[in-house]
Amino acid sequence: MNQRMSLGKEYVKGLWEINPIFKQMLGMCPTLAVTVSAINGIAMGLAVTFVLFFSSLIISFIRKLIPSQVRIAVYIVIIATFVTIVDLVMKAQFADLSRAMGPFIPLIVVNCLILGRQEAFASKNNPGRAVLDALGNGSGFLLALFALGSVRELFGSRTILGFAVLPETFQPWLIMILPPGAFVTLGLMIAAANEYVARQRRRQRETVLAGYKRADARSPLERAGV
Amino acid sequence: MKQVLVMVLTLGTVAIISGGILSRVNAWAQSLITANLDATTEQAVFMVQPAGERYEKVEGVDFTVYRVFDSDDRFVGYAMVYEGTGYQGTIRLMAGLNEDLSQIVAIEVLEDSETPGLGALINEEKFKDQFKGLVTSPAITWVKGAAPSMPNEVQAITGATISSRAVVDIINEGVAELRRSLVE
User: Fold this and answer.
1) Mean pLDDT throughout B116-132?
2) Shortest CB distance from B33 goes to which of A77, A92, A177?
């Protein structure tokens, strides 16, 4: 990140441009495992965002003090501290949700999305940017998990966030709340995201080419002397 | 040498601070977590012993059993927690039994990891209600496809015979174990 991005861009990029699920493909394990319902997706998204926010903040603050040989160990200790806090708080205050998440809250420690952001961003940028980047990535993660959870809950149990959406006559697709449903839904969503990007890129190229044609009868390749 | 010292110091400092914070959080959370667990147990006990008002743990048994008393402080029966292997993992359930262990009052599944939509149907009232008033001697059995005709029979869930059988086995084993422990 040599060229300075605007601060707003630092946040927004996590939502789509480098979305953890659709673009970076990081943190897939909890994504597939807990998204049987929209509320589970939101809870996991919030937990990850919390851990990401505070880990990035602290690591960015002490980034110049950490010897590079032990940086990963230090990151893991800091991340594990916040994950344990989340786990304890959830067990104390949201016992039902904690039970639904099973082992996947403690497993946030090894979520490569969090370690990835520390290594790729927080350790090289000031706390302000690190926090925005963390919030952006966290929000992107949360949105993706909410979308995935909603789709699976809709077809798997006829509801979204517990509200009945499809009529009683709809026979729920059992597979959607089983692991294969997670893989299939996520695969289709990533395919749709890639198709959207490819189309956008094609349109962009055509616009540029059309611009050249108007300005010059020759093709851009010819002008470049190829 | 200096480099090694810096590394050790950094890692040590981070670990100590982290440990300090966590012990604080843990001290706060632990009592709430215990309270949650107790509340869950209490809820389950009164679910399997609807007449219950108060319960106490039975000592000297190597699994969890409660003696349950009603509002007049009369002994109404037992509530026991017992677990066994289901189709995919452990099934842990609580069974309410009358005072001489001859009949089941009700059962409640506390924990399972059965297949959603099939084995997980053991959580449904439709299945659990079959156990209400069931005779425990001779041991409970299960039938497939047809309505139960004997006072010690339940109907297995279609497509989840293993899970249904697991529940029956856990209860039978638990009752046998409890009988043995109480005689001693």
Assistant:
1) 87
2) A92
